[in-house]
Design a protein that fits this description.
This protein has one domain: Metallo-beta-lactamase, Chain A (4-Layer Sandwich). About 25% of the residues lie in helices and about 25% in strands. It has 9 helices and 14 strands. It is globular and about 50 Å long.
């Protein structure tokens, strides 16, 4: 796991995973160094990712006051309960729907929850975070947030993209990715992560982009993309094109078998 710094206020805890046949996908979490420190998402639900060690290198977990959980997919909640144990003052900021979803596996204690809806705000001491629903999402409980001090927008899955190399997926700056490659990859990700976008009425979908346009953030921080500074116009243009993009069709069993046949045999198999 790599660590990138965005200005004085934000640390990116940058992980990634290969997506066979598609590329490499960033798996980021973030620390907002506010007066009341905020951790945005808690990494992958896979062993050995080193999330808590990486987190501890940028903030003392005991100082963490808020865990902003953008949604409950397992690539966002990996170290949630480890962090709750290490951060006794912290409360989980999430939606009613997400809290309910977590209750089906491992509930968060009610006194550790703080429920917000899109449009509502949270005071974290030296700044205000505003919850919003990103235009693209794969989970109905999703809430991103906008920080009025750093002018950063934490967009959850929205604006994600599978990238061609591991180095690009782990980059500290999305501008390392050629612009035409980035747009293609973001539109591909939109069709994978938010397949409903093809059925949305165009005018209604575009209306969901307006709150983001009004924010006019200086930096967009997606879970699945390197940090993006000064990219708002082209990102909003990409959103407008998403409904007309060809739907994604994933590999079927025959394609899977062909893919597996192309892999190098393991030492055990030899």
């Amino acid at each position: 796991m790599d660590i990138h710094r965005i200005g004085r206020d934000i640390s990116v805890l940058a992980d990634q995973l290969p997506a066979p046949g598609i590329g490499f996908v960033s798996m980021n979490a973030f620390v907002l160094h506010a007066a009341e420190p905020v951790v945005v998402d808690t990494g992958l639900s896979l062993p050995g990712r080193g999330f808590m060690d990486a987190l501890g290198s940028v903030v003392d977990p005991q100082d963490v006051r808020w865990i902003w959980l953008t949604h409950t997919d397992r690539d966002h909640t990996g170290a949630l309960f480890d962090l709750l144990e290490a951060a006794p003052q912290a409360r989980v900021v999430t939606t009613f729907l997400s809290a309910g979803a977590m209750s089906t596996e491992r509930p968060v204690p009610m006194d550790r929850l703080y429920l917000l809806n899109p449009g509502q705000t949270l005071d974290v001491g030296d700044r205000t975070l505003t919850a919003f629903r990103p235009p693209l999402f794969d989970n109905p409980g999703t809430i991103g947030c906008y920080d009025d001090r750093s002018k950063a927008c934490f967009s959850s899955d929205c604006f994600g993209a599978p990238l061609s190399t591991s180095d690009l997926a782990g980059s500290s700056d999305v501008r390392d990715v050629p612009q035409d490659q980035l747009r293609f990859a973001q539109l591909l990700f939109a069709t994978i992560d938010s397949p409903w976008v093809h059925t949305a009425e165009q005018a209604k979908f575009l209306a969901t982009v307006e709150p983001l346009r009004a924010m006019d953030p200086e930096v967009i921080l997606s879970t699945h993309l390197p940090p993006a500074v000064g990219c708002v116009p082209e990102f909003l243009d990409m959103l407008a094109a998403a409904p007309q993009t060809a739907p994604f069709v994933g590999p079927d069993q025959r394609a899977l078998e062909e893919m597996l046949a192309g892999f190098e045999p393991t030492a055990a198999a030899r």
